[in-house]
Every structure is written in structure tokens, then in C-alpha cells.
User: What shape does this take?
Amino acid sequence: MQAYPSTAGNDERNESPAQRLDRNWSELLQGLRVGQTGVQILSGFLLTLPFQARFSQLESPLRGFFLAAMVLGTLSAALIVAPAMAHRLLFRQHAKDVLVQLGNVLAIVGLLCLSLTVSLSLVVTIGFVAGVTAGFIAGAVCLVVVLGVWVVLPLALLRHHRRR
Assistant: This one.
């Protein structure tokens, strides 16, 4: 399975395979910068919650969702930062194709974990303020919307584009 096909048939850019990999790596890093900031802010916020006075009033199911959000937020941060570490390890090893493919997979999994973190955080927050049922509903709606615009919409647009 070739994740990044050759530039044959893609002459509008007139770039070599090495130039294409460099561009893909740059574009991947740009996308990760957006996700990294969000996951860092959200994770930092979640880290402070247990130290708040009213945290002890959080109902038991919401505590479980909070813990799941913390774990997924930490995992998101690790996955989104991982391509930078991979770059350091693979630097000057002539493995840019491996780096781009690995970075892409890590970014996708990291952003999916981030979508779960955001949804679970909403469950906890809305659940605390308006009740557990309202929290579940808000979290489910959030997850559907996020996955819809992050996954379903781009894939649907790609399918539509390929049909034309």
C-alpha cells in the first residue's frame, strides 16, 4: 500500500518526489500546530480541576468521564507531539517518506483522541452544571458534530471530487 503516490499525473506542481515529501511534511506540521495548541490548553485546564473546591461535588459517573478525558487528553498531547520526536530520531537518515507517513497516522489518531477529550470534557462540564443526562446528550452531540466536520465531511468531499 503506497500512502503517497508518485507525482506522475500530478504535473501541475512540477515537483520532485523529495520536494513533495518536504511539502507534505510542512503541511503536516502546520496542521499539528493548530491541534497542539488546543490539546495543551484543554489538558492544562483539566489538570487544574481536581484542585478546585467544588470538584468533590462531582457525581461518580462524571468523575469517570473526567478521568477518561484526562487520559485521552494526555494521549492526544503525546500523539500530536510524537512526529517532532520522530523527526529528531530520523533526522538525516534519508527516511522522509517514513516520517511523513508515520506523522500522518500519529496526527490522525491524536486528533481523534482530541475529539473524544473535547466531548468528554463537555460531558463533565454540562453534567456538573445541568445534570448527568444533559451532559451525556451534550457530549454525544459534540462528538457527532466534531467527527462529522473532521472526518465525514472531508471524506465525502473527496468522494464527490473523485466522481467529477
Summary: Residues 17 and 26 are 14 Å apart (CA to CA).
